[in-house]
Amino acid sequence: PAPTPGFALPTNHTQQAFDPASDFTSKWTRADAKQIMAQSDPTVAPGQNSMSPDVTMPEIPEDFPAMNDDVWVWDTWSLTDENANQISYKGWDVIFSLVADRHAGYGFDQRHWNARIGYFFRKTNADPAKDKWNYGGHLFLDNTSIGNTEWSGSTRLMQGDHVNVFYTATTFHDVAERNAGGGGIAPDAAIAKALGNIHADKNGVTFDGFQHTKLLEPDGKMYQTKAQNPGFAFRDPYTFVDPAHPGKTYMVFEGNTAGNRGDYQCKGDDLGYRPGDPKAENVTDVQNSGAYYQTANVGLAVADNKDLTKWSFLPPILSANCVNDQTERPQIFIQNENGKNKYYLYTISHQFTYAAGMRGPDGVYGFVGDGIRSDFQPVNNSGLALGSPTDLNLPANNPSGSISGQQNGRQFQAYSHYVQPGGLVQSFIDNVNGVRGGSLSPTVKINFRNGVTQVDRSFGRNGLGPFGYLPTNVRVGGEGLY
Ligand code: FRU
Hints:
The protein has helices at 30-33, 35-38, 175-180, 268-271, 283-288, and strands at residues 26-27, 71-80, 87-89, 92-101, 116-123, 134-138, 149-157, 162-171, 188-201, 204-216, 235-241, 249-256, 295-303, 311-321, 328-337, 340-349, 363-369, 377-378, 384-387, 414-420, 424-432, 435-440, 444-449, 452-455, 474-476. With 482 residues, the protein is mainly β. The longest helix has 6 residues, at 175-180.
């Protein structure tokens, strides 16, 4: 692309693949992420969207429907196989969502402290515009999961009608933390799984027999522990197989760079400027700005047995040191381009988790390379794939804090974007012009190829598809139910 006056050029990334077990960690650099502002319009009237329509989620109407009247719904994933196919099971589409009770006396922003995994099902041939998702209730019986709160993960259909639910077992220790939403003793986090059974008949889908196993806790060497930083992140497991390494199962997850909070030293590689770039920042200035507090990474682990009950950490595949503190719900999406497998890593992030001197929207970010461990090229040179409409010229806000009066009322319209087959992106509604969500957004479509992504505004109505549209692309079972 032509350089934007006033901005340094993005980092050169080769996309070259490395052995998944090697210790090459790709960097989402400051030079890369500064391209978000380089591509943003500095002249819009305050409160308009300053980002290109190609990376802006179309506006969600304020009168969106509630998916369910009893529970708030946020992070959501489909029943999948090991290749990210979305499975129709005996004629039913099945999705899993974090849910919290709407009537328990706490507010929407307290949902994280009260999260459970719930599930919904709907006939595979349902009309997504008319037929509601049926709520099946909590997936696990009360007090049976590894932590006392269930956070995001992924669910895979295994042989013999078994399912493996990979999830984040978060354990809160005191009432202040849990009921007031922060400020108390920091929670513990582990990655866990539950092996259980799925059943389906003409009335719907049920699950039983879950056996829970703790899989991973942060090691403090590659992945930050609670002792190193009470605000650490260790969560959101997503498992898959890699055609380049048959017989192995991998997991990506959200982590932070190990080390005590505040000890990280920003490095030239984290900045990523090209030698001699006149617009480059220098390491000392960045370090002195406090940017070292932001140390997100995307972790990788490999299964050591066929039952997927034993896992080993591998070094992170991506770090965002001195750029951003959270790279959440990572997923790997493999797509054939010109006869070659390209690996897209998608991960969600927030505007308020950026480091000093950095600015970007809430949304989904993407990186492409030749393997699961690559020198990843950020999509659109910046990493931003799809953000909520935001005026990036105004300072960052927080969805549960005070919001600048001038800012675009849709800056937090949706979060937890998840990329599904066909480029369909589902997310949940958070805040549309002050109307709080807790329900699935209209699905949107992005087209991506050669590291460039673009919102497809011919999809649905001006780019907005049906609410909670998570169609399946592979059928298992059926018994005449179709
Ligand atoms: C994303 C997220 C996940 C976490 C969950 C907790 O929205 O922060 O990283 O698992 O929400 O509610």
